[in-house]
Amino acid sequence: MMRKKPELLSPAGDMEKLKMAVAYGADAVYLAGTSFGMRSFAGNFSPEELPLAVAYAHDHGVRVHVTVNTMPRSGEVDALPAHLERLNDAGVDALILADLGAFTLAPGAEAFFSIAGDGNIEIASGVTLEEGATYRLTLDVTAGKDNPVLSLVKK
């Protein structure tokens, strides 16, 4: 049986850190936009910078995971689908979510993203049980029990 190589996933709080992660061999980076990310002091990427960061990473064979790991408040929920669509348009490879319900707010997102949970996944965005039941969640622990990867697909 062929063993999978572990993925080196490095934080990239701004463009300088992204370039350093790429230069030092990261397979993937995780970063945040200016909204919906818990690392508010990391610099983060504006809506204009994020597509440039994704392009830079992809040009160097590096995948990009974006954190959407805050629990959206009711006033923020309306802005979340557009944010997720911008991430999709930028070519983001994966989302790191805290709220699994956030994923269901982006129409068609199941076709574009894989999901890595940050250990506190909840459904808290006002998604009904019926809506949640239309998705199948699978857990991949091949990277080890401390690094499970959740995949969410429409049934």
Describe the structure in brief.
The chain has 155 residues and is an alpha/beta fold. It contains 6 helices and 7 strands, in the order βαβαβααβαβαββ. About 12% of the residues have low confidence.
The best one-word shape is: globular
Average residue-wise pLDDT: 74
The count of helical stretches stands at 6
DSSP E strands, number: 7
Unreliable stretches (pLDDT < 50, length at least 5) are: 110-127
**Regarding quaternary structure, how should these chains be classified?**
single chain
Fraction of residues in helix: 25-40%
Query: If you compute it from the alpha carbons, what radius of gyration comes out, rounded to the nearest whole angstrom?
Result: 15 Å
The side-by-side strand order for the widest beta sheet comes to 1-2-3-4-5
* Structural class assignment: alpha/beta
Instruction: Tell me the strand percentage band.
Output: 25-35%
Explain what you see.
With 155 residues, this protein is α/β, with parallel strands linked by helices. It has helices at 15-23, 49-59, 74-77, 80-90, 100-103, 129-132; strands at residues 9-11, 28-32, 63-68, 94-99, 114-122, 135-140, 149-154. The strands form two sheets. Strands 1-2-3-4-5 form a five-stranded parallel β-sheet. Strands 6-7 form a two-stranded antiparallel ribbon. A hairpin with an 8-residue loop joins strand 6 and strand 7. Residues 110-127 have low confidence and may be disordered.
